[in-house]
Specification:
The strands form six sheets. Strands 22, 23, 24, 25, 26, 27, 28, 29, 30, 31 and 32 form an eleven-stranded antiparallel beta sheet that branches. The protein has a five-stranded mixed beta sheet with strand order 4-3-2-1-19. It is globular. It is mostly beta strands and 497 residues long. The chain contains two helices and 32 strands. The chain folds into two domains: 332 residues, Tachylectin-2, Chain A (5 Propeller); 151 residues, Exo-inulinase, domain 1 (Jelly Rolls, Sandwich). Bound molecules: beta-D-fructofuranose.
Amino acid sequence: MSTPLKRANEFVKKNIYKVNNQYRHTYHAMSQLNWSNDPNGLIWFNDKFHLFYQHNPYEANWGPMHWGHSTTKDFVKWKNEPIALAPDSPYDETLGAFSGTAIEKDGMLYLMYTSVTDHQQTQSIAYSKDGINFVKESNNPVITTSMNPPGVSANDIRDPSVFFHNGTYYVFLGTHIDGLGQIVLYKSVDLKKFEYVGPLMNISNPNERLFFQLRGVFECPDFCMVDNQQVLIASPQNLPKDGTQHENIQGNIYMLGNLNFETAKWDYHTLREIDSGFDFYAPQTAKLPDGRTIMIAWMQMWERTMPTQAHGWAGSYTLPRELSVKNNVLYQTPVREIANYRHNHVNYENITIHDGTLKNFADIYGNTLELELMIDVTAADQVGIELFRGIQNTTKVYFDKATSTVILDRSQSGIFIAGRELNNKTRSALVDIKNNILKLRIFLDVSSVEVFINDGEQTLTALVYPDPNDLGVGFYVNGGEATIISLEKYDIIVSQK
Ligand code: FRU
């Protein structure tokens, strides 16, 4: 008998050929066709790493949610697996299986997700022995609307993040209570029966109330331990802009603090944006067997024009990033396995760039590159790099001394991308320049730019849609001069199979 899951998998096979590859990445995870958003259920299970994701296999627009599925052994080469979950049960058959996370219990893989009908969001579970074929629990939904705390709308409580602590499964859900963004905690000893613990955010401080007056949901919470510190990641809607932070209407933050698991009280001392670029949302983390915590985000943004929809696909995922915490800052570095795919190394040292000139190197060009630079910025007003440069287009990443920011400018990158934000040209990150040296590590993958600043203290992620032959890379200064102390270039070459 054909089920919604079989039908979805057959549809994918029959329709892959329709996808136009022009802007598809070569070393980033992506669905095979049509729509995908949030990464879900990141986990190392059965000797490989699993990435599930929000997926509408039928159209390049958001629609009833399935869980797409890819696996990898090294975080760079991805294998497409059959769709894992489809809308097929009374509690999820209209809008489907929204975001959630994975956890291993007794050798089985459990997925906890938000099951959505047109009038309510509840939380459900599916499990698998092989990590590929899933069965939905017979007692779904395991968290029902009757278990919601007062003030929660039945349509806005979602995205369970499961965290195992002291023999108990704790579940963080994103919601809003009385108009204030909120994360609420539940617990269970067996992943079958759950009980409510309480809200995390104590919004008695008037400044905080203002900050969390979201008129939206604190989406996709993710609670993890990094370097023995508790980290709470979330994607709040409508955070107020704060300097260079939270320029996107759909934001991303991390908090460092201490959670009381008995009361749900969350005392945090640090709250910052994770990535200040245009296209970074709904990040999730996973612990790897070797102890690393890695994070992957949706490399797209809500309420923006998406040029690839006309090409039969939309949505992809950031490079997996290794997390660490130093001096109360969450650092992100590209997953180390990417270095196995470096080719054609080129290196330059002590190159001085003068005001108003664009410096090119005959052996530095391309659109699937890694660039690593150390620049002495002492004597320059602005110093930067032009990427994806062609006759008409260029994408700029530059340091501006007056504001001490690194700015990513996609106003001339190619196809114009409109969004609801006022500023659709630039995103920037305030940087702390030590000894006048700026360090940048930049990854290009056909239509993406990821900038890691000063060893990953800040990042800027953005999509761009240049012409296929916009392969130029150039270095420039506006006002004064700058010295590139060192410059490394690698082609990143991956044959996805
Ligand atoms: C965030 C989000 C989640 C939800 C999912 C639906 O991008 O809105 O809150 O579970 O996408 O696809």
